[in-house]
Design a protein that fits this description.
By secondary structure, the protein is mainly beta. Helix content is about 0%, strand content about 40%.
Amino acid sequence: MRGKYLFLVITCAVMAIGPWSVSRADDTVFSCGFESGLEGCGGWQVSNGVWDLGLSPMAGPGSPHTGYFCAATMPNGNYDPYQDSRLISPSINLPSVNGSEELWLKFWQWFSYSTYDAGYVQISVWNPGTSAWSAWTTVSGSIVNVSNGWSLLGVDLTKYAGSSVRIGFYHVADRNVYGDASESTGWYIDNIEIVRTVPAFTGTFESGWSGWTADCGVWQIGAPTSGPGSAHSGTQCAATVLAGNYPAYTDSRLVDRYIITFTILCKP
């Protein structure tokens, strides 16, 4: 049985927390940083255009999270209206898990979505009996509004252990009930990995993310240059944007799935 969850909700406040960290012994199942292009890491596919490789200088974040390339929706400008598109991974054989082991998809993301637009992480599973892929299933929350920086998102894939899967990054543009078209700089994705891990909770943020993830951006880990100006102890802490104000209309959650969840809710 896993540990109990503690929920802390802060409404529209700049928040920095510490000192904690999470230590995990990770076994990397799959990784891709797009440095070898979309054909690298086993070969990626794009349905209905839109997705491409971003090379500095770019719109949006201005550069990949690391290296020279990342995947992005129209990396040198705004995405087109009324055009949905899916970035599709190669087939990935997920290992089985035992005891308290878990499987996690983790990737770095930066995003800026217009109203009514969103991104979703999806999965499709190979059925050896029918020799066909299943329909796409959404396994994340909606990626909406603005991240205000690169952040690490985690998606629990443990229920798919032992299966062959494809991961889809589904970009949806303009589901506006009024029919008005609007665009922004979209979704940027870098340093994708799937890991088999055994959660274990320890100490501080000095080792970086170390198992924490953030849904819908906003949360960052590092040395703060706004707010308190420094960490409570050491040099790093977790904060809702380390170098400035958090963005409007974007709720975000800093998560260690094993122990604790911190949520910031920002309402107009």
